[in-house]
């Protein structure tokens, strides 16, 4: 680290189509270097994905914390679901596997939770209290729920049912492409999904992220939501920034929990 550089950590965002990583400037909440993106191997088995992610990590050849966002519910470093990954992930200790492959400690969390953490710190949710929901629209739909800036992890709201179907199979950004839907037709599906989520959580603010948030001006005005809905501030980089943030801050979060005498519930961290 040169004197002009602030603290940095490495963030990796594993998605259905790409594995992206970069060194993150933790004070500015932005990428400190150009990101590297490699295709997500198919089938996205633990071995193949971990090998590709390790390649991304080695490319940056940096010390310091490593955070990895994975599109799955992660409890105590363990993978609980695998909607857009190979089923062989379920039950694996992702954190242990990444750490062994890279040879340095890795922190693993849900990809949407990572994006949400970045949005709440540096993006559209900065300074916002109350109930905030971050939705990432990509291969699937990810969700990150915050109360007064604190994350409720692993909400998996992309999998609520809408019209008898898993919601992300109707309204994820990938569905628009796969079904060649017009922006209007897709926005109608997204609008219905947002209404359903609203009726469950009544959030004060919804932040829409994922790659499609770059094109927010083409669809946000088509939505008719009750709560305020805004595009993500960090767009598709939020996942990388948030994973790095989490990895850098986890020791302090754990120390604070210990100081308060809080004992994690079994399986939690
Ligand atoms: C997964 C979530 C993930 C989301 C976005 C869903 O299919 O179940 O864990 O956050 O996709 O990648």
Structural class estimated from helices and strands: alpha/beta
Q: Count of DSSP helices?
A: 7
Q: Which stretches of 5+ consecutive residues score pLDDT under 50?
A: none
Oligomer: single chain
Shape call: globular
Cofactors and ligands: beta-D-glucopyranose
Question: Major sheet, described briefly?
Answer: 6 strands, mixed
Q: Write down the secondary-structure element order.
A: EEEEHEEEHEHEEEEEHHHEEH
Number of DSSP-assigned strands: 15
Helical content band: 25-40%
Task: Output mean pLDDT.
Answer: 95
Distance between the termini: 30 Å
Supply Rg: 18 Å
Amount of beta strand: 15-25%
Describe the structure.
The chain has 269 residues and is of the alpha/beta class. The chain is built from seven helices and 15 strands. The strands form four sheets. Strands 1, 2, 3, 4, 5 and 8 form a six-stranded mixed β-sheet that branches. A hairpin with a 2-residue loop joins β12 and β13. The longest helix is centred in the last third of the chain and has 22 residues. The mean pLDDT is 95. Beta-D-glucopyranose (BGC) binds next to α3.
């Amino acid at each position: 680290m040169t004197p002009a550089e602030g603290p940095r950590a490495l963030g990796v965002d594993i998605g259905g189509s790409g594995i992206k990583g970069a060194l993150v400037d933790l004070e500015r909440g932005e990428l400190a270097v150009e990101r590297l993106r490699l295709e997500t191997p198919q089938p996205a088995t633990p071995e193949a994905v971990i090998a590709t992610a390790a390649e991304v990590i080695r490319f940056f050849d940096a010390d310091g914390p490593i955070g990895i966002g994975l599109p799955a519910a992660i409890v105590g470093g363990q993978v609980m679901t695998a909607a857009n990954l190979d089923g062989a992930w379920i039950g694996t200790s992702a954190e242990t596997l990444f750490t062994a492959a890279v040879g340095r400690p890795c922190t693993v969390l849900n990809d949407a939770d990572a994006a949400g953490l970045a949005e709440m710190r540096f993006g559209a949710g900065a300074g916002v209290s109350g109930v905030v929901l971050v939705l990432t629209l990509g291969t699937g739909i990810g969700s990150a729920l915050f109360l007064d800036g604190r994350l409720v992890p692993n909400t998996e709201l992309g999998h609520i049912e809408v019209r008898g179907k898993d919601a992300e199979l109707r309204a994820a950004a990938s569905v628009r492409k796969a079904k060649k839907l017009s922006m209007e037709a897709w926005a109608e599906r997204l609008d219905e999904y947002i209404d359903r989520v609203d009726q469950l959580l009544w959030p004060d603010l919804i932040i829409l992220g994922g790659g499609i948030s770059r094109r927010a001006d083409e669809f946000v005005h088509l939505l008719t939501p009750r709560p305020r809905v805004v595009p993500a501030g960090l767009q598709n980089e939020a996942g990388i920034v948030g994973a790095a943030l989490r990895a850098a801050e986890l020791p302090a979060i754990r120390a604070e929990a210990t100081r308060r005498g809080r004992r994690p519930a079994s399986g939690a961290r």
